[in-house]
Predict the structure.
Amino acid sequence: MARNIPLRHELKFFINEMQYQVLSRQLDRVLWRDPNGDVNNEYHIRSLYFDTIFNDAYFDKMDGDQNRDKYRIRIYNMRDTNIKLECKTKVGSLISKRSLGIPRDLAEQIIACDPTGLEQTRYGLLSDLYREMTCKLLRPVVIVDYVREAYLHPAQNVRITFDLKLRSGLSSVDLFNPKLATVCPHDENTEILEIKFDNYLPDYISGLMA
């Protein structure tokens, strides 16, 4: 688990369109825009999530397990120039994330459920992935798409994001296909608000969330 990796608070809420519009305008006045965003402070994220042959990650989440791992491969703006292999670990109420940039050929090898050579790597994340793929038959299961709008502040490393236009790739794991058919898995008037920070959320920022 994430013993030597910084643990952070990560709060997630479902909000409606009106709440999003109000909060977005407020945050844009007092926080910094994410430098990865375009002129509208947005960028596209596509993630391919993995699970074991017994869907342990899914059932652990549904059961409210306070200690669990979640593996994914993530790309940005539908490009293969910045591919991240990530593992998010939940420890009680806190979250840590390990992330490693990987080339497309390695991403495609992992998506094909081929762990060959991963046991020889010097990267702990790849070694852990090898163990999960060989011992628990970890494999890709679902693609998730959304547009992210993010705001930052250096105090307590605050990061507030809106994940908009959430879509799911159904049963496809074709991560690099820009024409992949997707569907909205929930009410289209619903957006996702995430609030992340180190030890505490500064009062003047939490006041905006009230």
The two ends are 33 Å apart (CA to CA). Residues 17-30 form the longest helix (14 residues).
